[in-house]
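For the sake of clarity, the format in which proteins appear in this thesis is described at this point. The record quoted next illustrates the convention:

___
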Amino acid sequence: MTARLPVAMVGAGHIHSPGYLRWLAQSPDVDLVGVYDQDPRRAAELAEASGTKVLGSLEEATSLARAAVIGPEPTRQLALAEAVAQSGGALLIEKPLGVNAAESKALVALAEKVPISVTLPVRYHPGAVQLARAVHEQQLGEVVAIWATNRNRFPGGWFGDPALAGGGCLLDHVVHVADLIGWIWQTTWSSVRAEAGTLHHVDLAVEDSAIVLAQTTNDMMVSVDPSMSRPDDMAGALDLTMRVWGERGVATIDIFAARVDAFDTSGRHRQHLVGADMDGAMLSDWVRSVRGAGPPPVPCADAFRASALAFAAQQAVATHQTVRLS
């Protein structure tokens, strides 16, 4: 019987970290050795919820674990990844890949020294896999345009603090759509135009609304709405949709269509996702790759291309000009 993989969570401030911890704690292939975070209270709460222990230092984490999930707020990502990488273990780091082009390049360079995969799970969703199959089998013919959305309510907390988030909805949401397109069509980005603003949460220091118009190197026109502007109690506030126009037909995917909308007696809404567990599929693939010494399933090079579109969109907003990437 193959020994379980010792994994530590290093940095747990990101909104996805609790879900990843729950999966790691329940996996028969993982020995979750503990949680390290610069906020001891948060580390203790997450450790208790996942049935593991608090790790008091990075040194303790790297001494116990053969692999680590790096899940802090975005601006803390690079420093933690570089520190943990000194032990030589495999890393799974939260998207986006850095908060600017320089950080993104530094993480790509780090991936030449240790195996690094990135948390871009949408490519594991059955709808995305089915769309990829249709494209590869030429069922749609040549694709000319894509209309995509990744919208939500504003999450609150550090998402509104540029010192921790590094940006607003452009940085957080564009990468999911960009990665999906890059993965399916094996293309990258040639140009982008974008506009953004803080339209619905007037006290925010980051944008909550945006529209992105981009062109790929294989001449597809792409529009993306990454806004975090939906009402707090809106049913189905979280979405990720893509409508694809080809010579032979049109295809649509709706990643979060399978859900239960629940309302309490005060009318407060909660969206419970059901069906496909794309996070679990991504984590399982990563664990399998580390245990088998295989290549990272979502390599830094892919995340670099997806994040580059978000960085270029930020530049386009600042200059009100088209930004060329290649």
